[in-house]
Structure formats: C-alpha cells, structure tokens
User: What shape does this take?
Amino acid sequence: MRNRRAVTAGAVTIVLTLSACGQDTDSGSDGLLKGGTVGIAMPTRASERWIADGKNVVEDLRGLRYKTKLVFGDDDPNRQVAQIRELIKQGVDALVIAAIDNRSLNGVLQQAAEAKIPVISYDRLILGTKNVDYYASFDNEQVGRLQARYIIDKLGLDDGAGPFNVELFAGSNDDNNTTYFFSGAMKLLQPYLDNRQLVVQSGQTKLSQVTTQRWDGATARKRMDEILSTSYGSGKVDGVLSPYDGMSIGILAALKAAGYGSDSKPLPVVTGQDAELASVRSIIAGQQTQTIYKDLRELAQIASRLVDDILNDRRPTVNNTTTYDNGAKVVPAYLLQPTSVDKSNYEDILVAGGFYTDAELKK
Ligand code: GAL
Assistant: This one.
C-alpha cells in the first residue's frame, strides 16, 4: 500500500496555496506532459477529506503526466459553477467534479459538452443532466447499512434488547449521497422502529426532517441541542445515526454539554463517516463510537484512471452500469467498498493501512 498522502499540515498548505491562486499544478515528475490539463472542482476546504481528495487527484494525474487546475467551491454552489465555467474557458481537457449542489451544474455542464470536455462525477452523483460521463464513488448505501448495523449490534437489538432511544441525522439535502446513506441505514433500522425496540423521541424520522445543510457540524450540534432539551427531559439517548464525522463531533459536543459522558449517563453510540482525524482521536478516547473509512487514495486513482482512459480513447473499466440513474441517463460507475472502523480495528485498518500514523492519532 502506498503511503498516505492526505492529511499532513504541510501538504494541505501546498494545495491551498496552489488552488487559491488557481495555478497550474505543474507537469509530471519527469517534466514531460502527456495528455493536457484536467480541471478538478472540489466542494469545500471546510473538511480535511476534500482537501485530501484534491491533493490525491492532483498527484495521481501528475503521475500520469497531466497538468491540473484544482479549485475549491467553498460550499457555495454559484461559486462552483463560476469556477467550472472558468476552467472550461481556460480549455481544460477533462473535468473531475465533486458537486456542492447536485442540481446546479446542468447549465455549465452543457457548456462542457459543447466544448467536448468529458466529465467525471466524483464521489457525489451529479443529477439531471446527460453531460456526465462516469461516476466514481463508494457503495454509499452500504455506508448507511454499516452505520445502522453498528447501532444494531452495539445495542444488542438482534438479541431482543431494548427499547432504546435513538435520534437520526442525515447529510445535506442537495447531495445525492445523503439519500443513499439514509435509505441504506433506514432499511436496517426500520424493523426495530416498527417493533419499538428503537424509539425516536423527537419523532423526527423522515429524511426531510433530519437533513443537515452542507453537512455542517454546528448545524448538527444545534439540532441535537434542541432535541435534547425538548424531547429528553428525564430520558436518555442511546444511539445517534450520524452520517459524517464533522456532524458527529457537533452532536457529541451537544451531548457532552447536556451532561453525557459520565458513568451514570454514558455517551450514546454515535456513528460517523470519513475517518477524519478528530473523529478517530475521539473514537480512541471512547467518545465517538464508529466511523466509516473510505480509502480516498483509491477513489482518486479510479477517477484519474477514468480520465486517462477517456483521453486516450480506451474503454474505461467500470463495475456498475445499471444502478446510477441520474434522471437523465444511467451513468456508468466504479464503486469502491467502505469499511466500518471502531476502537477495536482502527489500528489494523487505518494505521496498518497507512492512512494515519500512530503518532498522528495519539497526539
Ligand atoms: C458526502 C461524502 C461523505 C462526506 C460528506 C460531507 O458527499 O460522500 O464522505 O464527506 O459528503 O463532506
């Protein structure tokens, strides 16, 4: 396995500098350029995963001797559209896009199509346009299933334990992954809600009631604060379905502020996703319970290979040609598998796998 290239402070600084200037990110290591320039539009610098994604895709494409132009949309859909428009104007040969709002890109992707620029939908499926060539992501329903399965196992629901109180959180309503995560999780949790081994005291069980704009941790914290003060007078929360680490940290802050984390009032089972540094440290400290690890290095490689195959007129390798209907076409996809990580296996998966060093986690 290659060394992790994602989360060191020095590396982050380099990427931010390059992207902030909108500069080219250089030629291949031997100075030879192969196939032109690839525009990479990432959604935000607010979370370390997307910084890592940007850096990984740049490095992989450089290894294949492409020039790259990396931009971050700072969670503003209009800004991302303007950035992609600018990349098209600059004459990029391909686009790799992780959308902020999956439905805001139709106009600009029409321009890309007219300029014959192929588009890879990165991690998040772009909806409502036929001008998406390939989709590279993880099995996102499986992410939700792994989160739900963790709650089920930890609470002993299969052995008949309960009733337990759980609260449900979902991601941003304009991110298509939100639906996959939530529906994957709910397929497993629903039977226990139906037989009342699980009870949602807030009553908020519909996706439209539990989404979290821009996956924001502070927004998740606020909602958890409100739920605790309105629905948990004397009762206590036993589990929280959280789809993303940045939200889990916010939810944990609300729980701790309400006195959770002691022997008499232990923290509930709290899931997450992305194996972000703060969350893995929280897992080691016995606070967040689980995260879903997705090897971003592999995702970047898949996306880079798709670009390279398209630009060299080779038929790209995909492993799903039927599932990912974006409303305008079925987008051929390459899906990777996510892994459930908790205190019992983080060493094996994250440290032995080269994603973090022990020193980083124990700081
Ligand atoms: C999703 C992504 C998750 C998480 C989330 C918040 O689209 O699949 O892994 O990163 O965005 O950034």
